From TrEMBL:
This protein's name: 2,3-bisphosphoglycerate-independent phosphoglycerate mutase
Molecular-function GO terms, alphabetical: manganese ion binding; phosphoglycerate mutase activity
Reactions listed under catalytic activity: (2R)-2-phosphoglycerate = (2R)-3-phosphoglycerate
Species this protein is from: Holdemania filiformis
Active-site annotation: S63 (phosphoserine intermediate)
Bias (Basic and acidic residues): 455-469
Alphabetically ordered keywords of this record: Glycolysis, Isomerase, Manganese, Metal-binding
An example Gene Ontology biological process: glycolytic process
Keyword Manganese: yes
Residue sites binding substrate per the record: H122, R152, D153, R188, R195, R266, G267, D268, R269, K341
């Protein structure tokens, strides 16, 4: 058959809502996106909650679960849900890894490191609380927490709520047999939680803070947060690292013989610090000291590279993916984004696996991201991504192209409305360039998104007269799904991201594999 090329565009963090206030998707000047919506078959699809394998419909979507669903055409129970279940049934505490961590920590320290919030994107504070309680029950005597402050999946200055909650629990549990305290921390966008090797320096800073106990000292976490807030007026995600100390002595460095649990369940921002804890030969930065610890992740974060080696809950085993299917059919595919989302269109897309199925049939291109606050460069690498992608489309070397434009999401997370408008307008300019390239190549285009973000840039007000507060997190809104350049109609139905893969393969003239959720195309 004479197959038309297919170009699938993920506008990261672009949801749809009629709400007006702080809606950068609606208020940006986006004539091309508007024209696509006005003239092409399109619908709104679900990108949050149970439609993407999260515990409930109160859970906003995120890039991991969104790209997993886009890339595999199915709904798998995701980390957030699997960890809940494992804790509820107690299965987590019967795992060999948990037993080893606990046995090893006796006479030493059990450290918990991770994102302290109830955002449920990377972690959940309830998981941490349950494990601390159990550790005490099982006879661990000394626990230290290394807390990464969120402000990105939860309101931007909410850290003290979670700090207070966890410190209340530590106070309740502490007695002559149990000594549990926060030892260090810092904002998630400053230390430890880098992803896709965008900025290893963040991880190095985190290592110094958590492991070596080197950094600015404070008597309490509250004091650290309040001091930094007064000095810097920044959101929690941007607070610098801190070390809790008594008489100049850090409360909880990580030492030989200790156990360490990274309680984040999501992998992208957990892989680099896991490598630092696990790898004997490691050259990303000078660790100064490499403590011999038992280290485990909440989940295994990379199923191909087996990072980390030890983990508490088995991750979803995502199989029968779109990439796997296309390789079997001999279809040539091309994936591109900039560093911040490169792993989204490769690793997340393929079910949290970092390797290709077939070197010859698959091409992955990464445009290096800027290392700056994105409100200062809201255009990000939109132009450069488009340049490369258009070259690839013109080459005719591929049948299926996928691209992620991060602007709606990465700029949306800064909470800066004006910059997010520019981010959206950048994506719109890129769409126009792609539309022209697709026309020349006779390609079909799908335009969609993985979840909302830029669509709500203001927190809900408690009282109408309150001042609007910037909103940095994702949203619960549906996302657009648009098909351009194909003579098709969309069916009516209640669809979500997991219906995209089947629709894409039908557009490529292929059969929908068994086990996938249905295509959205109406039968002719
Ligand atoms: O930045 C991230 O880690 C998350 C938000 O926690 O965003 P996304 O899911 O879009 O990658
Ligand atoms: Mn995303
Ligand atoms: Mn995001």
């Amino acid at each position: 058959m004479n197959r038309k090329p297919l170009v699938l565009v993920v506008m990261d963090g672009v949801g749809l809502t009629d709400k007006d206030n702080g809606n950068a998707v609606k208020h940006a000047y986006t004539p091309n996106l508007d024209a696509l919506m006005a003239t092409c078959p399109n619908t709104k699809i679900k990108a949050h909650g149970t439609a993407v394998g999260l515990p409930s419909d109160a859970d906003m979507g995120n890039s991991e679960v969104g790209h997993n669903a886009l890339g595999c055409g199915q709904i798998y129970s995701q980390g957030a849900k699997l960890v809940n279940e494992s804790i509820e049934t107690g299965a987590i505490y019967t795992s060999d890894t948990w037993k080893e961590l606990i046995a090893n920590a006796k006479g030493h320290t059990l450290h918990f490191l991770g994102l302290l919030s109830d955002g449920n994107v990377h972690s959940h504070i309830k998981h941490l609380e349950a494990m601390i309680r159990e550790a005490k029950k099982e006879g661990v005597e000394r626990v230290r927490l290394h807390v990464l402050l969120d402000g990105r999946d939860v309101p931007e200055t909410s850290a003290l709520i979670y700090v207070e909650e966890i410190e209340n629990l530590l106070a309740e549990l502490s007695d002559s047999t149990f000594d549990a305290k926060i030892a260090s921390g810092g904002g998630r966008m400053v230390i430890t939680m880098d992803r896709y090797e965008a900025n290893w320096n963040m991880v190095e800073k985190g290592w110094h803070i958590h492991v070596l106990g080197e950094g600015r000292q404070f008597a309490s976490t509250k004091e650290a947060i309040e001091t930094y807030r007064n000095e810097l007026h920044c959101s929690d995600q941007d607070l610098p690292g801190f070390v809790i100390a008594e008489n100049g002595q850090p409360l909880g460095t990580i030492e030989d013989g200790d156990s360490v649990i990274l309680f984040n369940f999501r992998g992208d921002r957990a892989i680099e610090i896991s490598k630092a804890f696990e790898m004997a030969n490691f050259d990303a930065f000078d660790r100064v000291r490499f403590p011999k610890v038992v280290y485990a992740g909440m989940l295994q974060y990379d199923g191909d590279l087996h990072i980390p080696e030890k983990f508490l809950v088995t991750p979803p085993h995502i199989t029968n993916t779109l990439s796997e299917y296309l390789v079997k059919k001999g279809i040539r595919s091309y994936a591109i984004s900039e560093t911040q989302k490169f792993g989204h269109v490769t690793y997340f897309w393929n079910g949290n696996r970092s390797e290709k199925f077939d070197e010859k049939l698959e091409t992955w291109v990464e445009i290096p991201s800027d290392v700056v606050p994105f409100e200062q460069r809201p255009w990000m690498k939109g132009a450069e991504i488009s340049d490369e992608l258009i070259k690839a489309i013109e080459s005719g070397d591929y049948d299926f192209y996928r691209v992620n434009y991060p602007n709606g999401d990465m700029v949306g997370h800064t909470g800066n409305y004006e910059a997010t408008i520019i981010g959206m307008e950048t994506v719109d300019l890129c769409l126009k360039r792609l539309m022209d390239a697709c026309d020349k190549a006779g390609a079909i285009m799908i335009v969609t998104a993985d979840h909302g973000n830029a669509d709500e840039m203001e927190e809900k007000k408690k009282n109408p007269e309150d001042k609007a507060k910037p909103k940095t997190s994702h949203t619960l809104n549906p996302v657009p799904f648009i098909i351009r350049g194909a003579d098709i109609e969309l069916k009516d139905g209640d669809f979500g991201l997991s219906n995209v893969a089947a629709t894409a393969v039908e557009l490529m003239g292929l059969e929908v594999p068994e086990g996938w959720n249905e295509s959205m195309l109406a039968k002719k």
